[in-house]
Amino acid sequence: MNTSAIITMVVIQGIITIITVRIFYMVMRPPKNKNK
Amino acid sequence: MSNTNTSQGWGSRLGLILAMAGSAVGLANFLRFPIQAVDNGGGAFLIPYLVCFVIMGVPLLWVEWGVGRLGGKSGHHSTPFMFDKMTEGRFWKFTGVFGIFTNVVVIAYYTYIESWSLGYIIQTVMGSFNGADQGQVAQFFADYTNFLSGASGTSAFSLIIFLFTLFLNIYILSKGLSGIEKVAKIGMPLLLLFGAILAVKGLTLGTSGASAAVPDASAWDGLNFLWTVKFDSLLNPKVWLAAAGQIFFTLGLGWGFIQSYASYIKAKEDIALNAMASGFTNEFVEIVIGSLILIPIASGFLGLDWVKENASFGMTFQTMPYLFDQLGTIIGPIAGVLWFGLLFFAGITSSLAMGTPWMGFFESKFDWSRSKSAWSLGLVALLLGLPAVVFYEYGVLDEFDYWVGTVSLVVLAMFEAIIFSWIYGVNKGWKEITEGADMKVPKIFKFLLRYVTPTLIIIVFLGALVTPENNDWGAAFSSLFSGQGWNFSSGSIVSKIMYADLHRQIASATDMAKVEFLKEKMIFSKISRAILTIAFAVMVYLVYVAGQRLKKKNELKD
Fold it and tell me: Can you tell me whether residue B172 is helix, strand or coil?
């Protein structure tokens, strides 16, 4: 695999993974909105 | 906090998100995305794809969740009366018919494709593909789907598995949201596990699949092709339209089931963050897992040139069993079961979502019981699905898929974006999206919702309507301005309406048997369109009757 493809794959997949994990972290913590 | 719906609601936030993500994660993530990427220059596809996700996918997800929760507050669980509520009783409710119609027609044949996955799991375990060459595996698929002239034992098995899959879907739907939630909580983690194992195989296959017949085969070539970004393709409208189309399919936009699912959430449930959670789960499955299976494994055994020439939906069932068999007598069947198991879970979590708008409509507007709504859907799906199954070789399924599984989605999303941003009003819409949100929604999205997203969907629709020959927009405009007219692609809506492709095939065919077959295919296409038109007209009538019932109910209340 060439270097530029590896970098693109790691960066894009990494960003998507980090955002997804971060969102699920926010989902699983107790809600700020106490009315819920 | 009271639930917006009188009868049922989601058991947990995680269950809701997994069900929503499951509805979006479907066959498109593993099959359509890599094939679209290959057809549109590999890495070149990624930038337009990600841009379209942000400026069209994310805003539309919020719109659909917002429309759903808003409708649910008034007891509406399908798009016609959600639109009716937002437009204050104008004719717009009839545009919402697409939000039920699409699902009923697609579930009819989607469960058939879903049943192929289940059937292929059984066939893999039974060893039907052991030692078979590529041609034999392709022939097996032809027999499996050909009821009129294929091997009778295989096609009978296929029919039984289809009926079982449809029954399973309807049975789960008859259990209500709790049944759907259970399937999502089991199916989604298994799908991720199976996908991750196969993705590792795709990443590590390298050149080990090369053979005497294809000595240069390498999985790296497939990955290079998918992940090397070619910036010159950014100026090609074809790539942008394909990327926007993929965002539609993969996120489950324009179907009407997101709205239906969202109509069962609590009145102040966070929709901004929930929509992001389901949307990004879908993107994770598509970009991180989906991109590492089909193309690298196929390139690893058959070479990148073969993949570029043959990349199609059919590869899944016509080629993949052969490739898995090359992995050896132990790993091969395991990989096959994981692949078809993954597709089955991806399929069933989507087909269950497709059943919800119909059920929500009949339960809330005709006071039908959950069970009656579910089994009536099963009957209609069977009536619509059988022609697609039995006359598969005459293109009935393709005809249904084009008009309903492709065109209808864009039409509904176009009406919805216009209603939400321009008729209901983006200010009220924004309030709906941000109410109860645990995340801060960037203000730029209000601008995107008002101007960019609706305009983009209209462009996508017009692009599909008049797609030029070879998707070459530059040549098409030059031809138009030089007075030589516009040459339509055979895939454009205009060409499809005129049966241009079939006419061309008949004109160029020399074999009389083939001409006869194509003529029969034309008749089946016309019958398919008549069936779809009647189904749509019946849905319009039912929405009209439901509207009259609702009017009477409201008058009695007053």
Answer: helix
Show the domain range for B144.
13-465+499-557
Question: Which residue, B65, B261, B282, B118, is CA-closest to B181?
Answer: B261
Write out pLDDT tens, residues B337-380. Answer: 999 999 999 999 999 999 999 999 999 999 999 999 999 999 99
Chain B residue whose CA is closest to A20: B280
Half-sphere exposure at residue B418, Cβ-oriented, CA atoms within 13 angstroms: 12
Q: B133-159: per-residue pLDDT in tens?
A: 999 999 999 888 887 765 667 888 999
Three-state DSSP class for residue B488 = strand
The answer to whether residue B221 sits within a structural domain is yes
State which residue of chain A sits closest to B274, comparing Cα positions: A27
Q: Tell me the chain A residues in contact with residue B439 when contact means C-beta distances shorter than 8 Å.
A: 26
What residues of A are in contact with residue B224 (Cβ under 8 Å)?
1-2, 5
For residue B468, the cross-strand partners are B488
Out of B17, B268, B283, name the one closest to residue A36 (CB). Answer: B268
Number of domains in chain B: 1
A2, B118, B138, B320, B321 from B328: Cα distances, Å? 29, 22, 19, 14, 12
| pTM score of the predicted model | 0.92
Residue partners of B103: CB distance under 8 A and separation at least 6: B255, B256, B257, B354, B355, B356, B357, B358
Quote the DSSP letter at residue A32.
S
Q: How far apart are the C-alpha atoms of B163 and B108, rounded to whole Å?
A: 11
Residue B480 covered by a domain: no
The candidate with the shortest Cα–Cα distance to B553, out of B75, B7, B1, B40, is: B75
Q: What are the C-alpha distances in Å from B302 to residues B210, B220, B298? A: 8, 12, 6
Distance from CA of B284 to the nearest CA of A (A): 6
The C-alpha of A29 sits at a distance from chain B's nearest C-alpha, in angstroms, of 10
CATH classification of the domain holding B47: 1.10.4160
B471 assigned to some structural domain: no
